[in-house]
Amino acid sequence: MTKWKSAIVDADRNKDWKDRLKRSIRDVKWSESLQIIVDKILADEPLNVTDGCILFECKNLNELGHLANLHKIAMFDNNAYFNSNVHINQTNICVLACRFCAFRRGPKASDAYALSIDDYLSELEKFSSFVNEVHSVGGLHPDWDVDHYCSLFKRIKKEHPHVSIKALTAVEIKHLSQISNLSIRDTLLRLQEAGLTSLPGGGAEILDDDVRQIICNGKESSQEYLDIHEVAHDIGLPSNCTMLFGTIETTQQRVEHMIQLRDLGQRTKGFQCFVPYPFLPDSTRLPMAQLSTGQEILRVIAVSRIMLDSIPHIKAYRMNIGDSMAELALQFGADDIDGTVKQESIMHLAGSKTPLDYGVKQLAKLVTRSGNIPIKRNTTYSEFEKFVPPKEPRRLPVV
Ligand code: SF4
Fold this sequence. Notes:
The chain is an alpha/beta fold. It has a single domain, classed as Aldolase class I (TIM Barrel, Alpha-Beta Barrel). It is built from 15 helices and twelve strands. α3 packs across α11 (251-268), α4 (61-76) crosses α12 and α6 (146-159) runs parallel beside α8 (184-194). The protein is globular, with a radius of gyration of 21 Å. The two termini are 41 Å apart. The mean pLDDT is 93. The protein binds iron/sulfur cluster. Iron/sulfur cluster binds next to loops.
């Protein structure tokens, strides 16, 4: 079978993954600390904050990765997912000034920009024939209200009906609702009616208001982030969720962050993918940041997979961690590497060097190198196609 479908709520996860997982972990010889976790999984006991901290402190990263990878295999076998998408960041003008953000500009900055609807459509036109998703997030523009985004989304759907719109983070939704004088629910309903397919997960950072006050003062509170996603799920808009790590948070705060998302996902079944990404090194914006090593990135991916059993997919976000780390992460519990992307500003202004000219063939190669089978997916993880590389032309022997 090269093409298949899945209910959005399953997102292609094996329905009997818990039994498969138990069979695969039961007879492995685990270290003492991981055996505590394995025993709880075998007994169907939810993992708590202490368990999450035990996972983070596991001395043997390979063993932790092995446990995470067995979770991934129980859920998705050897499949790993990607999509053909383009990122268009509609404006960098923002009324806030989060300390970790290298992207935002004040309205008077010489390099501030705000794409008109026509300019946005011209950008999309360049990529539309080979993508099925546009991913759009940006600054909180002081004048753009819900009508502006409804007009934009309607034009996208009229001119490129095959393109799914994954757009607007929770803080953008909050901002739109405030300047449009609408409730969060009505804002989301208007956007959904205009063509919005799903919400990206950006802006969760760390769901702890003490941390948020320091790294992103003025943004939505932890509870507001959760509430906005809950309303989205309630009206049938699936979403992703994220974690920005390596700023000033503690291990416990990371685990508490995951548990809040896991519990909401358990209730609503609306989260499709968790995207953990490290703060990219920068000595000026957050000089007290801890920064993350390669080991730390793999550890976070692995712990995410083990803790977040209500969120099907774990993304190795190649725009942030780079292609080499993404390839490794696919052996440490991640099952998705996002997409072709083509253009992106937010991570690249923060220091990302990930190439933007990737095609589907190169992405598939990255997945194959990690020992997985490349599967092309749509935005909502409901349609899938096994990637079959085009046949190379046969070279005639030189005589
Ligand atoms: S992270 Fe988002 S809300 Fe914060 S300053 Fe940057 S663009 Fe604005």
